[in-house]
Write a structure and sequence with these properties.
Helix content is 72%, strand content 0%. The protein is an all-alpha fold and 184 residues long. Helix 2 runs antiparallel to helix 3. The radius of gyration is 35 Å and the shape is elongated. The termini are far apart.
């Protein structure tokens, strides 16, 4: 089995010829990612077809061996493998081109990408202008708030228990003598 040579352009073989003119016009990173996604989907589809062919292919062990059928299926399998190789080359070209386009981009810290609900626009501008606090300081503050929250929850639980006991006593007083007291 021979493999075709690697093309220097973005698209490689004749089935992608219609997309070649479009790719020449749309070479931004978003369209390259879309092309890469479609290529990955094609790779998965071809791989599933290869496994389907392998599952249906009978080994030439002499039981139900038909040389013509076996050769046809072997030819289809080799064609699928060749196309899979072409698709992987195409994916590599798209990957390299995307990395080339993104090489000069400046990375933004993830903390700046998270929107804060409690902040209004003026606070947001002040926050973006100031330096972002280190994560350890923010974690310490979150732990302190959690500790205070647990203390408040404990106090509320104690108050609810006291109210429950009070209501129980009031209800027992309103109900009158209990069954145990009347038996005496």
């Amino acid at each position: 089995m021979t493999t075709p040579p690697i093309a220097t352009g973005l698209m490689t073989s004749a089935p992608f010829g219609g997309q070649q003119a479009q790719a020449a016009r749309d070479v931004n990173t978003a369209s390259l990612c879309r092309i890469g996604q479609e290529t990955v989907q094609d790779i998965v589809l071809r791989t599933m077809e290869i496994f389907q062919l392998l599952r249906n292919m009978q080994l030439p062990n002499g039981v139900t061996y038909h040389p013509n059928t076996h050769q046809d299926r072997l030819g289809k399998l080799q064609e699928h493998l060749r196309m899979l190789s072409v698709l992987f080359r195409k994916l590599r070209l798209v990957y390299d081109k995307c990395n080339e386009n993104c090489a000069g981009l400046e990375t933004i810290p993830p903390e700046q990408l998270i929107p804060y609900v409690e902040e209004d626009s003026s606070k947001h501008e002040e926050r973006s202008a100031s330096q972002v606090r280190p994560a350890t300081e923010e974690r310490r503050e979150v732990l302190e708030v959690n500790k205070k929250l647990k203390q408040k929850n404990q106090q509320l639980k104690q108050i609810m228990d006291q109210l429950r006991n009070l209501i129980w006593e009031v209800n027992s007083m309103l109900a009158g003598p209990s069954v145990a007291e009347t038996a005496l």
